[in-house]
Write a structure and sequence with these properties.
Elements (H helix, E strand, L loop, with lengths): L9 H15 L7 H16 L1 H14 L2 E2 L2 E3 L6 E3 L3 E2 L5 H21 L7 E5 L6 H8 L11 H11 L3 E9 L3 E8 L2 E7 L2 E7 L4 E2 L9 E5 L37 H13 L6 E4 L3 E5 L5 E3 L7 H17 L4 E5 L7 E4 L2
Parallel strand pairs: 5-7, 8-11, 11-12, 14-15
Antiparallel strand pairs: 1-4, 2-3, 6-7, 8-9, 9-10, 12-13, 13-14, 15-16
Amino acid sequence: MNNNPRNLSRADQVRARRKIEKVQRKPIPRSVDRTSRDAYNASRVVSRHNTYHSTGTYTSSNRQRRQVYLPTGTPGSEVRLPTLPRISFSWRWLSAALALGMVVLLYMMLNSATFEVNTVNLSGGIRVPSEEVKAILNVTGESIIHVKPAQVEKQILATFPDIKSAQVEVALPNTLNVLIEERIPAILWLENEQELFWIDQDGYAFSIRGEANLPIRVYANTTPPYALGYVDPKSVEIEETVEDGEEEPVTPIPPIDPAFIQAVQKLNAIKPTDTAMLYDGERGLGWTDPHGWQVYFGTQTEDIDMKLIEYSHIVEAILDKNLQPVLISMEFLHAPFYRLEH
């Protein structure tokens, strides 16, 4: 057998080389440092799990697309359209749409002529002309959103003492509805036979307008008694500030003493028929007796029944003595007096 390597074939040389390499090949030992480094790298790979997860989520979300196929009329064939993304709507979309709509509506109400006040509907008035009320409001052409009903109500009540209440409502797009309640006259106040003003049941004085349903006529020589604590505006200097060319609203006339109104009504039911009701600033309410003299009962009605009984006895005594007084005062129950003609 020829063992000379030069005489061997190429295949035999390869087989011989493989046998030699098996014997010479030795495992390469791993150092301790290598092992600890591999353990460290393994822990780092685990810590990168979140990054991998987020990447997978992004990829899956990108693949959520809707595929649309259209038939072509030929059996077994169809056309695929470009994929469309799947869009999901939530409550945030609805909230954003509502907010945008409100902004657009507010802009239109502030700037569009459609929302400018051009109609003022006044109802409930009988004696107060509607033209006067509309003239002081001055809201025509103003944006309906700028109109404040409470402020308009205060303006009406401050300008018209004969209006008891006012209710203002805004009606879109450009209408203002005003409902007023007028005061009902209870007393017609006269001085020197001249009609000055009306007084209602609550004691508010206001100008005479039109006609009233039988108010009590009181002929006086002075103004009526005002409520306790009332200050005459003519006697006190009130400083009024005017800003931006706007006039300060006028304060309504303070109420007259409500007890005085009740006294007028009660004495009016007692006095003789066809006799005028009188008011004297010193002696109070009274009338002209059929016998020709004037009698006054003050302004309080607490003891009016006792005063009337006492007055009847005084009248009997005067007639028995054939006296003709010009004045009998019953203002004080325990101190009545009469005055004879000089």
